[in-house]
Design brief:
about 525 residues, 20 strands
């Protein structure tokens, strides 16, 4: 407008001054909450800001305002921007309670190198936004994207938001911030309650684990007598595990029953009498894997193969995110989260091209069954694919499919290497021209194993039996085996074999993360 500083009179605003006093703190951190697969809104992780000054810290969070958290309607509204999103500020300890304790999510804290003037600019821009609502899109203008313009307002020279035009995933925004010279000065990890509990338990011997479990599970157990058989020097680490397990079992509500508070108090008093050796007082495991150091979220793959004597070429494009054979570094081990995964195939003998599979969403978590943390494994799959167990693979054999179920898995060490076994009963629904009756409903029992013999090789084995009782009632069985050889988290070579009702298929290919 051609105005110079000082031409307009200054006006005092007590409300603004109070806002600046509370939020113009001495430092700002970018916080990443690790993925939470049991809630679709959090399965990619979540980012927000922490405004820190001494003992007072506030979080700056952008989120959709909705009472829904599940269902097809929730997903469609989130993808289409039907939900309003807005910024909120709440005390940081409430976020710790929500993520660290209630949802068992680790928090990564990235210290931003912002001056006092830059922090003031950030807070003033946040004030300008005020109670304004913006359309919230799960995949684009989401919690992570909207933080980037805030950082750009603080330091106009940085270019962050223009990197994200068609998809914004929290881990990718972390990479953008980390790759900006001088923006991040330090990184800290705040492990979740479950992470600390399991890390403390790892210090115990087999009999000590049983003792700690009895102390935590039995509120009437006498602590001193329960520890009589434990070596005096190790009583502290046993009590440490018992206390963390007790907190996990009984929740983290601010107001507990009086008897629970009394039990927790007595455990702390007893723990204070027994010193925990310094080398055993590390409640978080060494070697945390930074989410931004994991493989890139998008993947392209080219394959060639042979199906019942017919050669084919296949192109696979996956915007996000991870499957069982991708490198686990930085991701939840033995998890799968794929969206909008497209596979297109060209068959040489027919000289025809068709879409062999389109995965709208594939979510699986093989949570190892643990006597202290009893989480079921589950799988949810929705999309389009060509029918299995028939020789011809073409458009005529395509159908829409939805399946899902829960089961058990167990992970452990074999010859010093990680092995996971799983079994997942599921309900299977299908509809399309592939079936003579245009639909089928039935059950599927799927079992498998994932093994990593060396750090750069992963092997997967899976079998299933499918029984249908509505529509097309033909049953079939399947067997699949795959080997992936990866290098530096930038790509993999894969070889796979499938047998569906004696219809065999071999395939080999290369994938690249970007």
């Amino acid at each position: 407008m051609g105005l110079e500083a000082g031409q307009l009179p200054a006006h005092n605003c007590p409300i603004l001054e109070n806002w600046l006093e509370r939020l113009s703190h001495s430092s700002v951190q970018l916080i990443f909450a690790s993925a939470y697969l049991h809630n679709p809104a959090s399965m990619y992780g979540h980012t927000f800001l922490r405004m820190d000054k001494g003992l007072t810290s506030y979080s700056v969070n952008f989120a959709a305002e909705t009472n829904q958290t599940m269902g097809a309607g929730y997903a469609m509204k989130g993808l289409s921007g039907a939900y309003p999103g807005k910024f909120t500020t709440i005390p940081y300890y409430m976020k710790i309670q929500e993520y660290n304790n209630l949802e068992s999510r680790d928090l990564w804290e990235y210290q931003l190198n912002l001056s006092s003037a830059e922090i003031r600019s950030l807070v003033l821009h946040l004030w300008e936004l005020g109670p304004a609502y913006m359309k919230y899109y799960f995949l684009t203008k989401n919690c992570s994207y909207q933080l980037l313009p805030l950082m750009e307002a603080a330091r106009p020279g940085v270019k962050l938001s223009n990197r994200f035009r068609w998809m914004t995933i929290p881990a990718d925004t972390l990479r953008a911030v980390r790759e900006t010279p001088g923006l991040v000065t330090d990184i800290n990890v705040r492990p979740s309650a479950v992470t600390k509990m399991l890390a403390a338990r790892a210090n115990l011997r087999r009999e000590e684990i049983k003792i700690a479990g009895r102390i935590a599970r039995n509120p009437n157990a006498d602590i001193a007598s329960s520890l009589q058989s434990v070596d005096e020097k190790r009583k502290g680490i046993v009590l440490q595990s018992a206390f963390l397990y007790y907190r996990y079992l009984n929740g983290f509500a601010r107001f507990q029953e009086i008897k629970r508070d009394a039990r927790e108090h007595s455990m702390l008093l007893e723990l204070n009498r027994h010193q925990v050796p310094e080398e055993k007082n590390l409640l978080s495991p060494a070697g945390f894997e930074a989410p931004e150091d994991a493989h890139r979220t998008s993947r392209a793959m080219w394959s060639t193969g042979r199906r019942m004597g017919d050669w084919f070429q296949e192109i696979s494009l996956r915007p996000a995110l991870h499957d069982f054979l991708d490198p686990d570094y930085g991701y939840i081990p033995h998890s799968r989260l794929e969206m909008f995964h497209l596979k297109a195939r060209y068959v040489h003998s027919t000289q025809k091209f068709h879409v062999s599979q389109f995965v709208f969403a594939d979510l699986a978590s093989l949570s190892s069954w643990d006597p202290w943390v009893r989480k079921p494994s589950f799988n949810i799959w929705a999309g389009y694919e060509t029918r299995k167990g028939v020789k011809e693979s073409s458009w005529d054999q395509g159908y829409a499919r939805v399946k899902g179920g829960a089961g058990l898995s167990k992970a452990g060490k074999v010859l010093g290497r990680e092995l996971a076994l799983y079994a997942l009963p599921q309900i299977d629904l299908g509809a399309g021209p592939a079936f003579s009756k245009k639909n089928r409903v039935g059950t599927q029992v799927m079992s498998g194993a994932i093994f990593e013999p060396v750090s750069f090789i992963k092997m997967g084995f899976e079998s299933d039996y499918n029984n249908y009782f509505v529509g097309d009632e033909d049953d079939f069985w399947g067997l699949r085996a795959s080997v992936a050889l990866g290098w530096k988290r930038s790509g993999q070579a894969r070889i796979s074999y499938e047998n569906e009702n004696d219809i065999e298929e071999w395939k080999t290919g290369l994938n690249f993360y970007w």
